[in-house]
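Sequence in, structure out. Go.
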Amino acid sequence: MDPQNPTRAACNGPAPYMIKPCYLAGPCDKVPVMGDAWQRQPVPGLGTAYLRCDEATGSHYLALHTPGTEEHPARRAFDGTPTGWDFLSYPATGHLPSWQVIFSPGTPPELPAALAGLLSEGEEPAPYEVTEVDEATAPLERAGWSRDLGHECTWFSPGDQQAAVVTPTSPANPTRESQSWLFAARSRGGDQVLWLGQATPETPTALIRALCVQLADPAPVPRHQKPTTGPVTVTYP
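Output:
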């Protein structure tokens, strides 16, 4: 088998490539995102909805996956951003969401999987809190990401600086109106956004930290195709 062109059997079997860093590994629909703790329900014309609820209080998490295919084209967020995964938390039935996290269709699946995994812990949805921004970004600092203090506080991946995390507040400008968290990766030349994630400022710190942990993780991730997004390390399991 030519490793550049895996056969159909190889595409359906174990991934022939291990890629790092994760943020440049690209999308892969064969990497599982949602676990058994979520109730799955197909939504005609949109994709698949996943629900996890506390029957006693009515609080629940909702995740909507829109693959971005011809059959299920990507939805658009309020600002026009294409949305492949949309996570929302509702304090009770009939209430507005208390926080929201979205990912574009090209996002590496390990990021929504990290979010879904944390939200699956325990027997019922956990009441996570919002604490200091530095608690969320600590994994980036430990992994050698660089911090740029400007109008925003932006963390860049080491070396290539192709991935970035923008916090909703900046130590250099603490009076600035709070905006959403931003997670993104760009092409090697910087002229193309590869994927994008956003989280409202009310998103609990533990969830943002889980995303930062995944971005900073040096472990390779499985893929069925080699990405062409930048300088990646490819190994063959």
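Check: The CA atoms of residues 20 and 220 lie 4 Å apart. Confidence is low (pLDDT under 50) at residues 1-11.
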